């Protein structure tokens, strides 16, 4: 699970071009939206595409995405339970 969390941090920084954020700056339980990383709805769409492309997870329900994208911790848990790649 730790390797997956590390991978997620790297992918999020890369996919969303978060140039001024380092992997070490992202805590597992920090919120991804709002006060945490400060991501927005466009970033959420990018994360949905990344989940599909990299892990074979398709999100159809936006409410589901809101729960999954709370933190690195919640994303890693969801991916480990649902990935097809």
UniProtKB/TrEMBL annotation:
Pfam families recorded: PP-binding
Keywords associated with the record: Membrane, Phosphopantetheine, Phosphoprotein
Residue intervals of the Carrier domain: 1-83
Compartments reported by the entry: Membrane
Listed InterPro entries: ACP-like_sf, Cadherin_CS, PP-bd_ACP, Ppantetheine_attach_site
Coarse class of the protein's main subcellular location: membrane
Highest taxon in the source lineage: Bacteria
Protein name per its UniProtKB record: Phosphopantetheine-binding protein
Organism per entry: Flavobacterium suzhouense
Lineage: Bacteria, Pseudomonadati, Bacteroidota, Flavobacteriia, Flavobacteriales
């Amino acid at each position: 699970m730790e390797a997956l969390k590390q991978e997620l941090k790297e992918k999020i920084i890369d996919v969303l071009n978060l140039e001024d954020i380092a992997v070490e700056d992202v805590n597992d339980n920090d919120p991804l939206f709002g006060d945490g990383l400060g991501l927005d709805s466009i970033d959420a769409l990018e994360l949905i595409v990344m989940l599909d492309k990299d892990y074979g997870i398709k999100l159809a329900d936006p409410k589901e995405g809101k729960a999954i994208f709370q933190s690195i911790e919640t994303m890693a848990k969801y991916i480990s339970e649902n990935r097809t790649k």
